[in-house]
Structure to design on (318 residues):
């Protein structure tokens, strides 16, 4: 008899594909309904307590970016999260509350005019905040729609004053195994690393997120600062960023280091290109019970498709 021993990052197909969501949905909705009208959602109290920037929320909405589907309820998005630093289950929101988000200093270095460090509250005050309604499409074939608060990545690039020849931004999350039990698993390449090209960083859609639902970002969402590129699969949205490096070398991302044949550098959404273990043709819209066709570029092609002309030989959709 063959006994299969899976490594920690190898998600069985029955779990990685969205069929299990059908069974989880009822419990998820029951949990949401159980909230009293005045009760605090998980992580929201932690996000607001002793937060020097709480007065910046809610920020004015940028009406340029609209949705063709309703927003996902906050009680769903706050309880269904991927954050491997705190575990492999989706209900890591309680474990994530261990993360201390103040003080939080971000190191910005590499090929820039002058490397520097900046506290998250100083960064938000300097950049200014706005709200954008964006889709989020997970590589596991489920999706959400979230009102994110933050600022365009382009502003941060301009603040850093990169040198000529810079091609990529490498982003790295925190590293603290005492707080994050997942980081004690030695088979994972901690800290979590992600990267984008300079063209992607300067695209108007690329958003540095510091809040959601009109409030400071909850810890399970990647407080106090994360990335969201809505035309890419969600794993590109590195959470709890501590370092941003400008470089001319393509970063090897966390999931690429684990399994490059399944999780590549680009990770642009495309329903016609299946994951090696499941289809990407449709997605489960969390909170609705519906499966809908997935759109190429997650529906944002008019903003991003031109960036990839001439790169057709690259594996752009994994």
């Amino acid at each position: 008899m063959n006994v299969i021993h899976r490594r920690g990052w190898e998600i069985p197909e029955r779990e990685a594909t969205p069929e299990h969501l059908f069974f989880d949905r009822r419990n998820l909705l029951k949990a949401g309904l159980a909230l009293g009208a005045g009760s605090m959602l998980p992580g929201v109290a932690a996000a607001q307590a002793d937060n020097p920037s709480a007065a910046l929320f809610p920020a004015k909405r940028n009406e340029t970016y609209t949705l063709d589907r309703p927003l996902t309820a906050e009680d769903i998005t706050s309880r269904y999260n991927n954050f491997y630093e705190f575990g492999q289950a989706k209900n890591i929101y309680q474990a994530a509350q261990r993360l201390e988000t103040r003080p939080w200093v971000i190191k910005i270095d590499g090929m820039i005019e002058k490397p520097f460090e900046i506290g998250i509250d100083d960064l938000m005050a300097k950049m200014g905040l706005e709200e954008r309604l964006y889709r989020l499409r997970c590589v596991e074939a489920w999706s959400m729609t979230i009102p994110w608060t933050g600022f365009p990545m382009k502003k941060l690039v301009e603040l850093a004053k990169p040198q000529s020849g810079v091609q990529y931004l490498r982003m790295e999350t925190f590293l603290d195994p005492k707080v994050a039990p997942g980081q004690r698993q030695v088979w994972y390449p901690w800290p979590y690393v992600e990267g984008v090209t300079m063209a992607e960083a300067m695209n108007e859609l690329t958003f540095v997120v510091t809040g959601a639902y009109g409030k400071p970002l909850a810890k399970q969402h990647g407080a106090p600062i994360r990335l969201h590129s809505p035309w890419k699969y969600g794993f590109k949205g590195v959470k709890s960023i501590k370092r941003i490096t400008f470089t001319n070398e393509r970063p090897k991302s966390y999931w690429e280091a684990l399994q490059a044949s399944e999780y590549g550098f680009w990770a642009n959404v495309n329903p016609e290109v299946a994951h090696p273990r499941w289809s990407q043709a449709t997605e489960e819209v969390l909170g609705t019970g519906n499966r809908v066709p997935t759109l190429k570029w997650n529906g944002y092609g008019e903003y991003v498709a031109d960036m990839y002309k001439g790169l057709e030989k690259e594996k752009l959709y994994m």
The chain has one domain: 13-302. Residues 297 and 305 are 8 Å apart (CA to CA).
